[in-house]
Amino acid sequence: MRRGHKYETVGEYLANVDPDKRSALEKLRKTIAATVPRSEECISYGLPAIRHEGRVLVWFGASARHCAFYPGARPIRVHAAELKSYDTSKGTIRFQPEKPLPVSLIRKLIRTRIAEQDAARKRALLTAR
Questions:
Q1: Contact present, 44 and 79 (Cβ < 8 Å)
Q2: Using N-to-C axis directions, what is the helix angle for 103-128 and 19-35, rounded to 10°?
């Protein structure tokens, strides 16, 4: 990865990641796309991100020592038991490329995040009235 470089596309970002990490992130990318088919890719905060219904849903990326998936704090709390073998913090799941997140877990995390955003959207509509 080139530090400080601003990437225009997810493809450009991934082209600059080490091959082992790129492979793990490509699998994550494909799982997200299959789980949220009407989503769009973008770069947000310098990282690959997936936008759903106009809002960024999740991010992912690579650092020198690991790959990371950023589904937000609530999905990590809800699925903490399934994430116990991964290094997590408030909104981040760090994993090694050779030990990627299971597809079923990625789907659960994304569905929880979508439900969270849907609930926030409904609350905003109710308070706007």
A1: no
A2: 50
Six-digit token string for 11: 């493809």
| Residue 34 CA: distances (Å) to CA of 6, 28, 52, 83, 115 | 27, 10, 13, 21, 17
Q: What CATH code would you report for 10-122? A: 3.90.1150.200
Rounded to an integer, what distance in angstroms lies between the CA atom of residue 117 and that of residue 103? 21
DSSP state of 102: P
Convert the pLDDT of each residue in 83-95 to its tens digit: 999 999 999 999 9
DSSP code per residue over 4-59: T---SSHHHHHHTS-HHHHHHHHHHHHHHHHHSTT-EEEEETTEEEEEETTEEEEE
Q: Model-level pTM greater than 0.85?
A: yes
pLDDT reported for residue 2? 54
In sequence order, what are the residues at sequence separation of 6 or more whose Cβ sits closer than 8 angstroms to the Cβ of residue 70?
47, 58, 59, 60, 61, 91, 92, 93
Q: What CA–CA distance (Å, rounded) separates 50 from 114?
A: 12
Residue 53 in contact with residue 120, Cβ under 8 Å? no
